[in-house]
Fold:
Amino acid sequence: MKWDMDSEGLARVDLDIGKVNAFGKVAIEAFDNMLSEVEPLFGEVRAILITSQKVSSKGTPIFSAGADQSERLDWTQDEILQHLMRQRHVVHRLRTSKLFIIVLVSGVALGLGAELCAAADAVWATPAARFGFPEARLGIVPGAGGLIWAHRHCIQPRVAMQYIMSGEQFSAEMARRLGLVDHICQDVDQAIDNIRLWVSELRKTPPHTQVILKQSTASFLPCDNDCVIEQEAYRQTLAEKL
Structure:
């Protein structure tokens, strides 16, 4: 997974995961490896910007339009659940990283893509962004933090659960109302300019202070019991589906 660093200490990561429903096992490993490469550079690097330049064959911008369901067709239930735990582990690395995690969405962010947003410290979007949790339409539930976000961190949990149950997509403005998006800019260039300006201000904060602030934030994150509940809900739907 490609990444580079600018003079402001911002590491920019391009997901580059191909097409709709392509965030599979290989992409998860590449994402995890990217974090392992960038995190030791903390101090020189203060924040990670996760974005995507992918466009579908129909011209639709894609941030991350879901996990790869096709690779699981010949997996056992236990293999699927283990992979789900792997997904959750990588997403949790974002929540607990000492780096400030920023996501920029200008396209569709579905399923695991939306869960990356839920795990970030800040989310920017353009009006073209669309969000959603389509898992229910596949007979399963969000399993890498989506349910935890809806119940624990969403501003309007009942509205969030309505979208999760229906699988309906929602706009950047609705995502802002739910607390999944923090800032909306007219285009990607404007968002990146604003993000870089903010990171330049972040660099005025001593690195150890950033670490302490991130650690204090992590102390309010879902406990292990929440993850167990989410995993069990996924297991139950998966058992019915299989």
User: Anything to note?
Assistant: The mean pLDDT is 90.
